[in-house]
Specification:
The complex is a heterodimer of chains A (148) and B (361).
Chain A (H helix, E strand, L loop, with lengths): L1 H14 L7 H10 L10 H12 L6 E4 L4 E4 L4 E2 L29 H11 L9 H6 L15
Antiparallel strand pairs in A: 1-2, 2-3
Helix pairs in contact in A: 2-3
Chain B lengths: L2 H12 L5 H15 L41 H7 L12 H15 L9 H30 L7 E2 H11 L4 H9 L8 H17 L7 E2 L1 H8 L5 H15 L7 E2 H4 L10 H22 L6 E2 L1 H8 L4 H15 L9 H6 L1 H5 L6 H8 L1
Antiparallel strand pairs in B: 1-2, 3-4
Helix pairs in contact in B: 1-2, 3-5, 5-9, 5-14, 6-7, 8-9, 10-13
The chains are: A mainly alpha (148), B mainly alpha (361).
Chain lengths: 148, 361
């Protein structure tokens, strides 16, 4: 039994390596950082978007062979336009940050960058997953019972 | 992308300006400002989560090891283990319920009820789940086909599809239909033009004789889901090889398969990301795709690797899945091993593992 308990603790410690937010935890963090209604985008929109982009995994990374860019973090923000990873051709870095900043457990910088993205004319439509899963849907379930 | 709509409406308001220079400057600034998607998640959308009226062939196909864009399908293990029940193991759901569900699956896989899973049993299960994904695709295809065949004559032409595709990209459906009817050049951006070209190639490939560019419902299914059509699977393989093949010899070397973009990585974390990506692809290349281990992947090898109904692949996959969780190395899976490695099988940790097992004893 002791061995199993030790195993359990090891599992717990292993899970700390990659910060994966719980849905409501994420919603509260967003609200605390002024995301509710930012540029007309509701909290539920942001939660829905992040679930479909990264399943709330702060260290999600996906490479895009097409333009040799990479999408980083809980919002899957792209290195071609928004951040610098030192290896993306024709990069712009509109958020003025290294892409590694988007992978941190503390998602403050990722939120600031997401705000910058949504201030562009296309707004939240910059996120394909939002268009395909969240647009014109009833999103109340994404923040249900979160107290936000 | 929808940003074209914004440009169109903005262009109208700019037409009133007298100075052409200002109009051009505005256009250039607008193009630069609006053509910046947050990411390219399009290529990674799960097929199971597609909208009902989805008419664009997905890059991601459930139960297929490589995406259409050459990425490894990181959800493959869960897809062939869970079948269409992939959404039942959300992080939010209670651990006890997830555990019970996992044990129900275990008892189904364990055909001879000896309380452990053999490679043969897992292989059989994988084949069953893969077929399940295909049945799901057939069902979805009826809806998609109905969306592109509104007159219900059982055929959809390339021109009809093009109208629907561009409408789904935010273009005005009537304007597009008129332009096509009058053989006018379509005003679409470069990226959409390229996608259309690829789609047209696939359309040609899916169009069985007679070559009339009209697709039936079955042909449309192979257009959206090439993995279960021999001809379309070959086409898919050819596309992937073409994308990755740098020296043009129509096969893939290890460097080609794992190639990363040139450039200096800025820090150690970036280097770690690259290393992980390369390591995963190298392992897949050497251990699985290159079946004769000669350092070269031919189109035939890649096709065998991607064929979801290949029995040899399913057995290999079964052995691989068992090996990952088989702690006592008896080449079988016991209930406690599956529970401990639940994240590998379901994509979701069972955080109360220790407590649950304690209660079981």
């Amino acid at each position: 039994m002791k061995a199993l308990l030790v195993l359990g603790f090891l599992l717990l410690s292993a899970s700390v390596q990659a910060k994966i937010y719980e849905r409501c935890q994420f919603a509260r963090t967003l609200k605390r950082n002024g995301m509710s209604g930012y540029y007309g985008v509701s909290l539920a929109d942001w939660v829905c978007l992040a679930q479909h982009e990264s399943n709330y995994n702060t260290q999600a990374r996906n490479y895009n062979p097409g333009d040799q860019s990479t999408d980083y973090g809980i919002f899957q923000i792209n290195s071609r336009y928004w951040c610098n990873d030192g290896k993306t051709p024709r990069a712009k870095n509109a958020c003025g940050i290294p892409c590694s900043a988007l992978l941190q457990d503390d998602i403050t910088q990722a939120i600031q960058c997401a705000k910058r993205v949504v201030r562009d004319p296309q707004g939240i439509r910059a996120w394909v997953a939002w268009q395909r899963h969240c647009k014109n849907r009833d999103l109340s379930g994404y923040i249900r019972n979160c107290g936000v | 992308m929808v940003w074209l709509v914004a440009m169109t409406s903005r262009q109208r308001s700019l037409c009133g300006l007298a100075a052409h220079g200002l109009w051009f400057l505005g256009l250039v600034l607008l193009m630069d400002a609006t053509a910046r998607p947050a990411n390219h998640s399009f290529s990674r959308e799960r097929a199971a989560n597609r909208d009902e009226n989805e008419i664009i062939p997905p890059d991601h196909l459930n139960g297929v090891k490589l995406e259409m864009d050459g990425h490894l399908n990181k959800d493959f293990h869960q897809e062939v283990f869970l079948g269409k029940d992939m959404d039942g193991f959300d992080e939010d759901s209670e651990p006890r319920r997830s555990r019970r569900k996992l044990m129900v699956i275990f008892s189904k896989v364990d055909v001879n009820t000896d309380r452990r899973i053999s490679a043969k049993e897992m292989q059989h299960w994988i084949m069953e789940k893969t077929a399940e994904h295909f049945q799901e695709a057939v069902k979805e295809n009826k809806l998609h086909f109905r969306a592109v065949d509104p007159d219900g004559d059982g055929h959809v032409s390339w021109d009809e599809y093009k109208v629907k595709f561009l409408a789904s990209k935010g273009h005005n459906e009537r304007e597009i239909a008129d332009a096509i009817k009058n053989h006018e050049e379509l005003k679409v951006d470069e990226e959409t033009q390229e996608v259309l070209g690829n789609l047209r190639d696939r359309w040609y490939q899916a169009d069985n004789p007679p070559a009339d560019l009209l697709l039936t419902e079955d042909e449309f299914l192979s257009f959206l889901h090439p993995e279960h059509s021999r001809g379309m699977l070959k086409f898919m393989v050819k596309e992937i090889v073409r994308d990755l093949d740098q020296d043009g010899d129509k096969q893939l070397s290890l460097p080609e398969f794992i190639s990363l973009p040139v450039g200096t990585v800025e820090n150690q974390q970036g280097q770690d990301i690259d290393d992980n990506w390369v390591k995963d692809r190298k392992k897949e290349f050497e251990e699985l795709i290159d079946s004769n281990h000669d350092g070269i992947v031919t189109m035939e090898e890649l096709e065998n690797y991607m064929d979801p109904m290949n029995e040899y692949n399913a057995l290999n996959e079964a052995k691989q899945m068992i090996a990952i969780a088989d702690e006592n190395q008896n080449h079988h899976l016991e209930p406690e091993e599956i529970l401990k490695y639940s994240e590998f099988f379901t994509g979701s940790k069972l955080m109360d593992y220790a407590r649950n097992v304690h209660e079981e004893f």
